Backbone:
């Protein structure tokens, strides 16, 4: 089992994006120092999150770390160009001595779709088609490909080549069975985001993933499954709960307003923190 | 006057792209240490050059430098998305404490056009239209824009915002009067690549640039003009000339083969090195 941290690099009130980016590099350095396995950075295109180019920010972190793996969490592949994504992360892989990973997702936030001219009606086809090309690019340095939503490639060379062969590509899902089955069929490692509700309801999804992997001719036991969940740890459990309450519920209420969720108060927060909940907040032994 | 280095990160025979990328970070660190003003990285999409994502490689350098400015040299803007370019360099600007610059060019190497689905017939229109959008993006964080070769933006937000306002954008030219005049009209700093022939023939271009700047309502005296030229310096001038001869002519012959140039031998090399030539090779006082 591996453990790491992922962040969306949310900007605190009054903080500049530049200050947040500098903090981020310090966080990557500390995560490496204390021995975490992976550091992930999400992609957003809004003023309240500092990272729209995960590979650029991770490259700064590569220079301050020596062991930790560096990943997007996630790359919104549907609204990006797989060729640029592959090049960015192959470059990061070279700079970091083979520590880069791509976590590809369809996107939970959707602001990137109008920004890059994609239609939300194509939400799934965009992802499927771009994932297919991304996987071709890591398979060979000369690629011939055609499909929707991206100009065709005719024996095109894509460089630099990564150190790792293949460059790791994870599929990140929010709970859509179709996405889980696709990851299994393709034999790609799966990352599940659990940001509400009971983690138990995700067990059937993991079963579905392993069945799909077998159907795709892959050994389910060899495929990694990960979970991303909101977390906050302090020496004392009650202190952790109190310290995290305000910033967490303010964030969830703010984002929830855009999505039609009710505001989050202490009862909902405490329920999420309970043993069956999705929030890993407490003392180290509680969270573990 | 400022002085710096720019490189295309050419990969030596037998070297991996990853090794070249690591060397590059050491070169950025050394350039900062010895007090150069700027370090530039070119964008290529071929196995003999290691950098297709200048901003990613520069971000690693940002972490190892404290004073030097970091720029693309050049970003092939015609085949890229100005929104991604702006985001990448705004991120670099935040990471580096306001040391990022973009040098935008139409591209001397053209392999990026088929790779990203652009038509070489649109060579100039692509650049003009994408430059217009790039300049809009640095002017405001909410942009409404429409034009050819890129989906329209309707009051779209583009983040993170850079530290520098405005983020420096240079225009890099190879000698096309039209490109020089555009840079002047827009009031953008001009970088001229001199990779052959006599530097004197570029003087009329600088005159044209300054006239165009005046026509555009800009003060020509306030606009920077730079020159990029191949250079190699050693303690002793003859040693510099001998050491640089083989790698330089091998490279120029190899690239020249693709472009129909004749192979380069010692006479042509020595002519380029002469006082009126375009090659800055020699002892420090000769080159200065």
Residues:
């Amino acid at each position: 089992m591996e453990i790491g941290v992922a962040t969306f690099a949310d900007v605190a009130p009054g903080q500049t994006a530049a200050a947040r980016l500098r903090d981020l590099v310090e966080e990557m350095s500390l995560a490496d120092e204390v021995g975490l396995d992976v550091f992930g950075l999400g992609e957003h295109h809004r003023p309240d999150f500092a990272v729209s180019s995960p590979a650029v920010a991770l490259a700064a972190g590569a220079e301050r770390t020596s062991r930790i793996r560096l990943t997007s969490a996630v790359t919104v592949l549907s609204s990006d160009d797989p060729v640029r994504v592959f090049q960015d992360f192959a470059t990061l892989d070279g700079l970091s001595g083979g520590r880069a990973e791509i976590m590809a997702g369809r996107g939970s936030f959707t602001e990137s779709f109008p920004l890059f001219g994609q239609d939300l009606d194509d939400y799934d086809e965009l992802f499927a088609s771009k994932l297919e090309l991304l996987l071709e690019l890591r398979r060979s340095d000369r690629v011939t490909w055609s499909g929707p939503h991206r100009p065709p490639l005719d024996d095109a060379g894509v460089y630099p080549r990564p150190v790792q062969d293949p460059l790791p590509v994870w599929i990140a899902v929010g709970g859509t069975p179709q996405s889980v089955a696709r990851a299994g069929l393709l034999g790609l490692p799966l990352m599940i985001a659990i940001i509400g509700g009971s983690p138990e309801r995700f067990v059937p999804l993991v079963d579905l993933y392993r069945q799909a992997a077998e159907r795709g001719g892959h050994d389910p036991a060899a495929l990694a499954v990960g979970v991303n969940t909101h977390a906050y740890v302090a020496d004392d459990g009650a202190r952790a709960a109190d310290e995290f309450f305000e910033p967490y519920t303010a964030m969830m209420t703010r984002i929830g307003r855009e999505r039609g969720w009710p505001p989050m108060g202490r009862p909902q927060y405490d329920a999420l923190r309970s043993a069956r909940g999705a929030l890993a907040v407490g003392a180290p032994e509680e969270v573990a």
The radius of gyration of chain B is 19 Å.
